[in-house]
Design a protein that fits this description.
By secondary structure, the chain is mostly beta strands. It has a domain of 81 residues: Immunoglobulin-like (Sandwich). It is built from 15 helices and 49 strands. A hairpin with a 6-residue loop joins strand 5 and strand 6. Helix 7 packs antiparallel against helix 8. It is globular and about 110 Å long. About 4% of the residues have low confidence. It is a multi-pass membrane protein. Belongs to the TonB-dependent receptor family. Keywords: Cell outer membrane, Membrane, Signal, Transmembrane, Transmembrane beta strand, Transport. Its main location: membrane.
């Protein structure tokens, strides 16, 4: 029997023993048998009006019904000791324990601005009472997120929670096919790519769960309805289906996940079907995307010609060459004088339109509930012909038999993303405006200038041949990625008796990603790179299958006995993820409409072979959680988790994780008397150790690769591909958190504060080994980091007038986060030394990543600069010994600034007047630094022979002795490489900004309007939202260099039937 199955058997034996103990404990405290009753009553608002559609639910048995049009309800088969929950959107839920013999319960619901996490916290495994919880968590409703951004739930979450950081990709901008990269409370790992190498690159994006986390080792664990999921699933799901999102931050909140919880957990809950008559809900959003090109300030036609002239491009010491260059200058200048001033930035962009249709149907009678959800979401990007289309279908079935509730959810989704055939936006920013885009007949030109023979000039054009990236849009280019997903998640919940529940779940999810890229032979990328006709044109194809199986079983027990409240949860889980993919790349397809793999001439000059990959990862986990609360004043909890994974060394397959916390509800102390300043106060503290599994599946295993190049007597040999490390341990993060919540001035101000520290040990990094082994390095536990900071959130209901139906709530949040490297492997030091090599100055034009003990993982390293010498126009540097020099030396690099901002936060305003709603959100950051690559690439290191320049190239550069300038003099031609500007402190600038992220105006139509009644509509709503309205920054740099950023508008309609 394998070790995995031994561990599995051991896990479930411990679970069964735990459940038996819970059952015995409950038998000692209450009677098993009780005769059920029928409860009737009414649900009304504060004005006495009936609330139709309010949900009435038995908390323990999950039996549920809803109120009729007159607000009455009838709930059958209820335990006489049950607790009923009455809820409706926009009202505070009410919990009513039944009194002895009580059969009629009338309830009044009060309007509320808070709707989540009032009585329980859901960590994705089980729900616990708030009174028995000591962790740091924040919950947001789906409606709250939609008010911020109705199109992108990840951007909405990052805008209102300071701990959730969305990494802005300055290259890919608002590309609809680029998945977001997020972190909770900063970084606990060094940034690495999917290959495992430290880098600052962009993560891959597909439906593979392992690749999703491997590409971003700092990504939090994502849970959807109790099952682990991927960022792509969350990114592509219908936002209208989201009931709530809970962000779990500290050890007390996350330790039940053990080895997967070091980066925090995001729990997404979808809406459940409502009982009663059939309800239909339809919503549609019309979206508009506008390209934001405000960060670009490029030279016009005459301006770039003047810059080239000053740089000496049209001059030469050789008289014949000088004449030829002057001919080209005059030709180009004449074109500019005649009005040729092409604004290339406008060529590949468009106003993108999109629609998001969402339809849901739900109903049920008695014990049966069902729900059907359909969604079609198509969004065009701001670059022409780029788009992302999503098709989603889900079916929910819920059935209650006595005390057993059965839930099953089937999902089917298809996503297709088309990349623009117009190429990179950078190609258009580089184009000279004195080139025409189209000829006199209106056709797009492929080669932008005639050659010297056609013009009868004496020499070739300075800069060589220039191709038009717009020309590729006329070709039969194919460039897309797609993903088909199908899943089935089953949950069974048995309420054995009041307070004691047993749950089991099994999920199966499969993703089938594919991508194709075809570039015809006439593509401009082949003009200079390939001269052999038979190798023109390329085709690439990727096919894969990724499967995840997830099973859980757990039990929970909650009992209140006088002033004592006990909560116990015990459970276990197993997960298996497998992926396989095949990638093929071929060349030699000379005809543009023959975009088929079998029509290629071969695998290209490098004779590359098709690539395939298979991986399998298994993990097991079991946990025990205990929580005790006394008199709603003192709370203590402790959770123990044991996890096992196939990823780690054979000597360390299992690892323990644990966490706990205490809380003190000062409000309920006798000495704490209510006053005019502080009405409520709660202090909590937590600690614990969690782990991380975002690593390669075979990093500790000895792996061989067959050699197809050489054979031995018609037999294939195998080469050792990965060096085994049986002692590789689990990466562990010690989390400590101290929190305080306050209610001030009779509810006028609510404050939440958290102080945290996260220390990661056994950081998995490469270790150098002897060359005789045949390897450069292998993986070992040789590093550590420390991440710490604090978070503050303040909310205030400035106006709360129920009679006039006016509500205004404002909020402010901010967070401070720092990280430092505490320990590193010698292999990382070798990388630092390689990056300090001064021989290849081309790679030193921007700061290279460098990881040093005592410094941040996001530190910017550059050579200190005193600026430009007015006498010579050269840059003056500071050496390590403090002396000054004109010579740049990589060994003089020092930490100049941290890209991680000192403070990040946001402000929000939510105003409601009768049926009108106005919402406003902004985010800010301060104290961070950024290397202004625009000034390097477009001003000092700009190659005026081949690309356009920033306007500052003419205004702020040194020209003659005595000039006090920000930039060096213009240098071009053969000596330009000797004058390259390398990583210097001159371009490390403060990156403070304020973004107005969203503004929303909505109106809820009254139900008594004639047309609303005639159409038999319920709660129709109209909503207009603008996202990314404005940005104010201290740094002027080009944004969206490969794909522009966008400002978006959304016009939405929704109604129930």
């Amino acid at each position: 029997m394998s070790n995995d199955y031994k561990i599995l058997n051991k896990t479930y034996r411990s679970i069964c023993r735990g459940l038996s103990a819970l059952l015995l404990l409950n038998l000692l405290s209450t009677s098993l048998f009780a005769q059920n009753v029928t409860i009737t009553g009414t649900v009304k608002d504060e004005k006495g009006g009936p609330i139709p559609g309010a949900v009435v639910q038995d908390v323990n048995s999950k039996i549920v019904t809803s109120t009729k049009a007159n607000g009455t309800y009838e709930l059958k088969n209820v335990s006489p000791k049950a607790t009923l929950r009455f809820s409706y959107v926009g009202f505070k839920p009410v919990y009513m324990p039944l009194k002895s013999g009580e059969k009629i319960v009338d309830v009044i619901l009060k309007a509320s601005t808070t709707t989540l996490a009032e009585v329980s916290i859901n960590n994705g495994l089980y729900k616990r009472p708030v009174g028995n919880f000591t962790g740091a968590a924040k919950a947001y409703s789906g409606e709250e997120l939609k008010m911020v951004n109705p199109r992108n739930v990840i951007q909405a979450l990052a805008a209102i929670d300071p701990s959730v950081r969305l990494t802005e990709n300055n290259i890919l901008g608002s590309d609809p096919n680029q998945l977001p990269v997020i972190q909770i409370r900063g970084q606990n790992n060094l940034p690495v790519s999917a290959s495992g190498n430290p880098t600052t690159g962009t993560p891959v994006s597909n439906g593979d769960m392992m690749s999703s986390y491997l590409s971003n080792p700092n990504e939090p664990l994502l849970i959807l309805d109790g099952f682990q999921t991927t960022m792509q699933t969350i990114y592509d799901m219908d936002i209208n289906l989201i009931a709530s999102i809970t962000v779990l931050k500290d050890a007390a909140a996350t330790v039940a996940y053990g080895s997967k919880a070091a980066n925090g957990v995001i729990v997404v809950e979808t809406k459940q079907p409502l009982p009663g008559k059939i309800r239909a809900t339809y919503s549609v959003n019309f979206n508009i995307e506008l390209p934001d090109l405000s960060s670009y300030d490029l030279l016009d036609a005459e301006g770039i010609l003047e810059a080239q002239r000053l740089a000496g491009i049209y001059s030469d010491e050789n008289r014949f060459n000088d004449i030829a260059k002057k001919q080209w200058y005059n030709y180009r200048l004449n074109n500019a004088k005649r009005g040729v001033n092409t604004y290339w930035l406008s060529q590949p962009v468009q106003i993108g339109f999109g629609t998001n249709h969402s339809f849901s149907l739900s109903g049920g009678a008695g014990a049966l509930r069902y729900g059907l959800n359909l969604n079609y979401n198509n969004s065009e990007g701001v670059m022409k012909e780029s788009s992302r289309s999503r098709y989603n279908l889900s079916y929910n079935l819920s059935y209650v038999v006595k005390n057993v509730k059965f839930d099953n959810r089937i999902t089917l989704g298809y996503t297709k993303g088309n990349n623009t055939p117009w190429g990179s936006f950078r190609d258009y920013a580089d184009q000279f405006p004195f080139f025409r885009n189209k000829d006199e007949a209106g056709n797009i030109i492929k080669i932008l200038e005639p050659n010297n023979k056609e013009l009868e000039f004496d020499g070739n054009a300075p800069g060589g041949t220039f191709t038009n990236p717009s020309y590729n849009s006329t070709l039969n280019i194919k460039d897309y990625s797609a993903n088909l997903s199908i899943g089935n998640n089953t949950n069974v919940e048995w309420t054995i008796m009041d307070g004691l529940q047993l749950r089991g779940s099994l999920g199966w999810n499969r993703n089938v990603p594919e991508s194709e890229s075809f570039y015809p032979a006439d593509h401009t990328s082949f003009v200079k790179s390939i001269s052999i006709f038979s190798e023109l044109g390329s085709y690439g194809q990727l096919r894969g299958i990724n499967t995840a199986i997830d099973g859980k079983i757990n039990g929970s027990y909650h009992k209140k006995m006088g002033n004592h409240s006990l909560f116990v949860a015990v459970g276990g889980s197993f997960q298996q993820t497998s992926s396989q993919s095949t990638r093929v790349g071929v060349t030699g397809i000379p005809i543009d409409y023959l975009s088929e793999l079998g029509l290629a001439n071969g695998f290209g000059l490098s004779n590359t072979r098709p690539l395939s990959n298979k991986s399998l990862t298994k993990s097991l986990s079991n946990y025990l959680s205990l929580s005790y609360n006394y008199d709603d004043r003192y709370t203590a909890e402790f959770t123990f988790n044991q996890s096992g994974s196939s990823q780690f060394g054979s000597n360390n397959k299992l690892a323990p994780f644990y966490g706990g916390g205490v809380a003190w509800n000062i409000t309920n102390e006798d000495f704490f008397k209510e006053n005019d300043i502080v009405q409520s106060a709660k202090l909590r503290a937590s600690f614990g150790i969690t782990g991380n599994q975002n690593f390669s599946p075979y990093m500790s295993t000895q792996v061989y690769e067959y050699s197809f190049i050489n054979d031995y007597r018609l037999s294939l040999g195998a080469l050792l591909n990965n060096y085994a490390n049986p002692d590789l341990k689990w990466q562990q993060t010690l989390k400590q958190n101290l929190g305080l919540t306050l209610g001030l001035f009779k509810g006028k101000i609510n404050v939440g504060m958290d102080l945290f520290r996260e220390t990661t040990d056994n950081l998995i990094l490469p270790l150098d080994v002897a060359p005789s082994t045949g390897f450069v390095n292998y993986q070992d536990n040789l590093g550590g980091t420390r991440n710490q900071g604090y978070e503050v959130s303040i909310s205030s209901p400035l106006i709360k007038n129920s009679k006039r139906n006016i509500f205004w709530t404002v909020g402010f949040n901010t967070g401070h986060y720092t990280n430092v490297i505490t320990r590193l492997s010698p292999a990382i030091e070798a990388i630092n030394k390689a990056n300090n090599s001064s021989f290849d100055r081309e790679t030193q034009k921007s700061p290279l990543p460098r990881f040093v003990v005592g410094q941040s993982t996001t530190q910017i390293w550059a050579v200190p600069s005193f600026g430009i010498d007015p006498a010579t126009g050269k840059e003056v540097f500071e050496k390590l010994d403090g002396s000054r020099t004109f010579i740049w030396d990589a060994n003089d690099k020092r930490p100049i600034g941290d890209a991680n901002s000192k403070f990040k936060g946001g402000m929000s305003s939510n105003f409601t007047y009768k049926n009108f709603v106005l919402n406003f959100n902004l985010v800010f950051q301060t104290g961070g630094y950024m290397y202004n690559q625009t000034l390097v690439d477009r001003v000092e290191n700009v190659d005026l022979l081949s690309g356009n320049a920033d306007r500052r190239v003419l205004t702020d550069r040194w020209k003659q002795p005595g000039d006090h300038s920000s930039f060096k003099s213009l240098v071009s031609g053969p000596n330009a490489g000797l004058q390259l500007t390398n990583a210097t402190s001159r371009f490390v600038q403060k990156n403070d900004f304020l973004d107005i992220t969203s503004m929303t105006v909505g109106y809820n139509f009254p139900s008594n309007l004639k047309w609303v009644k005639a159409a038999r509509l319920s709660t129709p709503r109209i909503m207009i939202t603008q996202n990314n309205f404005a940005r104010f920054a201290t740094i002027k740099t080009e944004r969206g260099t490969g794909y522009p950023f966008a400002r978006s508008f959304s016009f939405g309609l929704s109604t129930n039937f």
